Amino acid sequence: MKERLNTTEFIFEGLTDDPFLQFTFLLIFLIMYFTIICGNTVIFVVIWQNPDLHTPMYIFLLNLSVIDITSTSNILPKLLLMVFTEYNTISFGECITQLYLFILLVCTEVFLLAAMAYDRYVAICHPFHYITIMNLKNTAGLSVMAWTLGLLSPVGHVTLISRMSFCVSHVIRHFYCDISPLLMISCSDVYSVEMLTYAVGTLVGIVTLVFTLLSYIFIILKILTIKSTEGRGKAFSTCSSHLTCVIMFYGTMMCLHMRPTSTYSSKFDKCFALVYAALVPMVNPFIYSLKNKEVKKGLKKLKKQILINIFKL
């Protein structure tokens, strides 16, 4: 019988042992983290301070910015510390907390993306009823529901994993605490956790994905009925940014989690985890702002206010 090892702390495998690559990664991740925090904070402030942007789409985008900042801060600072100091240890409590936050934020983002798809569906397919359906009360309700379901989603995983024995190794073959790497070093029966992962993945991920895809099918069918090319382009531009983020997010998450633990690959998962933890949060503000006239207008107002305040000093 395998003896249970002390689980007061784990050791991350990290990304590489090469000093040159470590230094390179440190610079890259510092730049990416700075860009993520600044970009999403600017989007948050622009929406928060501009009454013209207090509409359903931008309220959801504001929530998405909070998720991007929080999810990145849950993973990247620890990774930067590991690369800079080569201190790869994390306590069991910190690991479980990191896992809880990771699942919470992934699930909340899934629900928010579905809500944003529904918002675009109503705006394009039922424009005359948009103000009635997507009023402030319903928008706030959808946002609160997304966060509430997100808070509840990790409870089962965290409860089961916190009771497991880890006798195979203390080394997590990853750079943060995720489900599959933890199951790989456990000597407990992982069947219940895997079944729960499939159940949550189906109820949260697949159902919301189908809902989002159906929304876009109806949107596309409606756009095709528009006679003018300019009208079709304008209608599609209102949802192209969201559709891009949906494809990036779901593609990454499905590659990471919708497969058995036996197929876990450290290098494969690290690559897709970096896309989720750094690349997606970094490009989201640019995707939503580059072709958005309202956000550009809000950015100009914010820039003007900052300059006025500076000259006053």
Structure description:
The chain has one domain (9-312): Up-down Bundle (Rhopdopsin 7-helix transmembrane proteins). It is built from 11 helices and 3 strands, in the order βααβααααβααααα. It has helices at 19-49, 56-85, 92-125, 130-133, 136-152, 155-162, 179-184, 191-224, 229-257, 266-290, 293-312; strands at residues 9-12, 89-91, 171-172. The chain has a 3-stranded mixed β-sheet. The model is unreliable at 1-6 (pLDDT under 50).
Low-confidence residue ranges: 1-6
The rounded Rg comes to 21 Å
CATH architecture: Up-down Bundle
Examine the coordinates and then state which fold CATH places here, giving the name of the CATH topology.
Rhopdopsin 7-helix transmembrane proteins
Strand order of the largest sheet: 2-1-3
- Kindly name the structural category: mainly alpha
- State the share of residues found in helices, binned by percent: over 70%
CATH class: Mainly Alpha
Strand content: under 5%
**Total discrete domains:** 1
Overall morphology: globular
Mean pLDDT: 85
Number of distinct helices: 11
> What is the fourth-level CATH superfamily?
Rhodopsin 7-helix transmembrane proteins
| Strand segment count | 3
Order of secondary-structure elements: EHHEHHHHEHHHHH
